[in-house]
Input
Amino acid sequence: MLVSGLAQPGARWHRVAALLAEAGHTVVTLDNRGCGATGPCTEAFTLADCAADVLQTADALGLGRFSLAGISMGGMIAQEVLAAAPDRVDAAGLLATTPGGDLTLPPPDPMILMTDDPKVLWTRLTGPGFAEAHPDVIAEEAAVSTAAATPLETVMWQLQAILAFDPADRLDRLDLPVLVIHGDHDPLVPYENGVRLAKKLGVELVTFEGAGHALEFERPAEVAALLARHFAPTERRGRVSG
Output
């Protein structure tokens, strides 16, 4: 199960999902509450509510256990899933996300998301030189944004939920393989967040040098390969010291 970030539909994972499917995995992407096909929200919600949506989706699909990856806000939702139902998750990947609470380091430019042009947004969020080298990818991802635009009210509720996110010590005794993945040029969720999250959980941190925030389309082949290995029972790695 792959969980997307702020205001993003499940289709944002399309590159990674296709590669995981080619590797033999059954892949589920879902639209977070208020995004894509879920329709507009009528009231505020928390990331714990979004985690409950993930579990309800798994239930509806008959998935007693599953592997889980989330990026950005989706990584926070994944942590809420791990806190609420660790027995349901075989292995987890947390991408470009934060440890929550006082451990979270905010972006250096809090206005980075303020644009109505998705091409401008993805150019800002990717690593140095990516947009110039891959204008076709930026255009394709901008089209995904346009096709599944999230209502402003939902975006504000998601931001409110992100600001309230604090798993505290609820993940301290996880007994399942977790992998943290982060780009070292992430302008929205600074790299130090990945360092802090991996240290807090006592797990491996994989650094994508030169990558920004949009790992699902900046480095899809590398992300898919990492997750495919991590999700394979014979290759799973557990907690490490550090």
